[in-house]
Design brief:
By secondary structure, the chain is of the alpha+beta class. Helices cover 28% and strands 31% of the residues. A seven-stranded antiparallel β-sheet has the order 17-18-19-23-22-21-20. A five-stranded mixed β-sheet has the order 9-8-7-10-11. Strand 20 and strand 21 form a beta hairpin. Helix 1 packs across helix 2 and helix 5 crosses helix 6. It is globular. It starts with 7 loop residues before the first strand and ends with a strand.
């Protein structure tokens, strides 16, 4: 099939799965909507519960995409699925596995079509439930992610500052994605647009709502542009999220945020006070990590499956990140998590897990804390509860060498939060 003349363009996230073009969006009844919500909510898992019954996530996505095609006899190959640009490669992989031959593109690929400026002078802002991502020309910048934790005005001002840094003295066009499926997105978008315009850099700000996004999708179909073209071929920035998805098998690195400053800790041991940082998104968790520390997923050996971020100068200095959904989000507390952890630790050999504190505080955050002792290193664990997600961050160092990981550890704990 050439071009996109008969391709359905499907929006997958944030908050919904729906058709953006090829006629009106599919009207969904309650049962279908529940299945779509389950597909999105469980995209990081293997199984989901629908009407109380376990269903594989792969089958949910397969059925959802089949229902949303335009009636083509070759549905998968007639479909473009547009996903949040900050999604990690693992989530995009669920979509491509669900429909062999489907083309996937980040939302930025579609959003940039609302800009009248050159690609290198366009900045895309995407609002999600728990973060706002900002991206400019990927030849110079990656993504910057700002958590939606503070009041709206400070978030808008922070984003305007990031836009100014990305623009580097230019006057970029700023496109602000405001999906109706994200709570408060319209309000946040309006505040960001005002902050960008008030910055005095001559920047223009355009808010892209659901109706405008559908118009952009329809224009792609009418022009027949090949969605598989790279950004370099198409002369745009649209495929930036797709390129960044391949940076790390364990997650997607979003943003360079600060300059590196070397330091020396106690006893002459090397320490890192303020490393150049990135936002790492893995599954339902995002946190700040050093930009030059390699990331990998560990699924063997002692301990739970986890993402490990390791110092390039010392293999015994690392961060470990694990996550899990809590069994009962309405009633889960750190106390309940502490009780389960204490039982699990009690089943381990004596002397491996020590200093257990069920009501600890780590970098100002309430947490369950303990130490894990292994040959050649120790790991200080901080267990947090953020909404429906239990986040565990382990800070590994050689015995007596905690300074080597202290600042990196604190910034990871301080920044860690659940995302939608």
């Amino acid at each position: 099939m050439s071009g996109t003349a008969h391709r359905a363009i499907i929006e997958a996230g944030p908050g919904t799965i729906r058709r953006l073009c090829c006629g009106t969006s599919l009207a969904t009844d309650g049962e279908v909507s529940e299945r779509y919500a389950a597909a999105l909510g469980a995209i990081d898992d293997h199984l989901a519960l629908v009407n109380g019954h376990p269903v594989t996530v792969a089958s949910l996505w397969h059925d959802a995409l089949r229902e949303l095609d335009c009636g083509s006899p070759d549905a998968a190959r007639s479909m473009i699925v547009v996903h949040p640009s900050w999604w990690p490669a693992s989530r995009v992989g669920v979509i491509t596995a669900a429909a062999n031959g489907v083309v996937t593109q980040p939302r930025s690929w579609l959003l940039t079509r609302a800009s009248t400026a050159a690609p290198e002078a366009t900045v895309v802002v995407e609002i999600a439930e728990r973060l706002v991502s900002i991206a400019g020309d990927t030849k110079r910048e990656g993504f910057v992610a700002v958590p939606r934790r503070t009041g709206l005005d400070p978030v808008a001002e922070e984003i305007a500052g990031v836009v100014a840094r990305i623009g580097r003295g230019t006057t970029p066009a700023v496109l602000i994605d405001a999906p109706s499926t994200v709570a408060g997105a319209a309000t946040v978008a309006a505040l960001i647009a005002a902050a960008v315009r008030d910055a005095g850099n001559g920047q223009t700000a355009v808010v892209v709502d659901d109706a405008r996004l559908s118009q952009l999708a329809q224009s792609v179909r009418l022009t027949g542009q090949d969605p598989g073209r790279s950004a370099a071929d198409a002369g745009g920035v649209g495929s930036r999220g797709w390129k960044l998805s391949g940076l790390a098998a364990a997650g997607v690195v979003l943003a360079v945020a600060a300059p590196a400053v070397a330091a020396v800790g106690r006893n002459g041991a090397p320490a890192i006070e303020k490393a150049a940082t990135t936002f790492l998104v893995e599954g339902r968790v995002a946190l700040t990590v050093p930009v030059n520390w390699p990331t990998r997923r560990v699924i063997s050996g002692p301990g739970s499956a986890r993402v490990q971020v390791t110092s390039p100068s010392d293999p015994e200095v690392a961060l470990h990140v694990t996550q899990s959904l809590v069994p009962d989000v309405k009633h889960e507390t750190l106390t309940g998590i502490a009780e389960r952890l204490k039982r699990a630790i009690g089943a381990e050999p004596a002397g491996v897990f020590v200093d257990f504190d069920p009501s600890g505080v780590s970098v100002g955050r309430s947490a369950v804390t303990y130490r894990e002792l292994r040959a050649g290193h120790q790991v200080r664990w901080t267990v947090l509860l953020d909404g429906a997600v239990q986040i565990s961050i382990g800070c590994q160092s050689r015995p007596g060498g905690e300074d080597a990981v202290r600042e990196v550890c604190e910034q990871a704990i301080r920044s860690a939060h659940a995302i939608g």
